[in-house]
């Protein structure tokens, strides 16, 4: 009985209510235990990654100017939906970065073409 009282079951529920109620309390306890284990594992993962990220500056012979990796901007995705959402955002960010590079390159090339065309005009006038 103390086991079920620790789970939150009352004295009257244990002795007077449906006998299958203990089975549901045990199942709920198992689910809580798995959730807690998952939370602690995730906390350990964050801690481990944090130590690995600062490890380069903790070495006694680290080069001058060595910096730790930046702290993650957002939590780790846990569900498949969160993983897909993060991948989608990363793809979109990559596409935007590539667009910016392409635009900068095109502007540079257009300036070079305009300079060459101006030089040709200057040769013809000169």
Architecture overview:
There is one protein chain. The protein has 126 residues and is mainly alpha-helical. It folds into two domains: 1-76; 78-126. It has four helices and no strands. The protein has helices at residues 2-7, 11-16, 21-58, 80-125. The longest helix is centred in the last third of the chain and has 46 residues, at 80-125. The chain starts with a helix and ends with a helix.
Keywords summarizing the entry:
76% helix, mainly alpha, 4 helices
- How many β-strand stretches? 0
Number of helices: 4
- Strand percentage lies at under 5%
What overall geometry do the principal axes of the alpha carbons give? elongated
Order of helices and strands: HHHH
The quaternary structure here is single chain
Structural class: mainly alpha
Ordered list of secondary-structure elements with their pairings:
Blueprint: H1 2-7, H2 11-16, H3 21-58, H4 80-125
């Amino acid at each position: 009985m103390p086991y079920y009282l620790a789970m939150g079951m009352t004295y009257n529920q244990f002795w007077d209510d449906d006998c299958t109620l203990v089975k549901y309390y045990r199942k709920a306890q198992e689910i809580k235990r798995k959730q807690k284990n998952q939370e602690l594992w995730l906390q350990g993962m964050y801690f481990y990654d944090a130590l690995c990220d600062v490890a380069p500056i903790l070495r006694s012979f680290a080069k001058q100017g060595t910096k730790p990796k930046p702290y993650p901007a957002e939590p780790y995705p846990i569900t498949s939906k969160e993983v897909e959402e993060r991948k989608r955002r990363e793809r979109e960010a990559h596409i935007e970065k590539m667009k910016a590079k392409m635009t900068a390159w095109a502007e540079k090339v257009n300036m070079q073409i305009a300079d060459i065309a101006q030089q040709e005009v200057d040769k013809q006038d000169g």
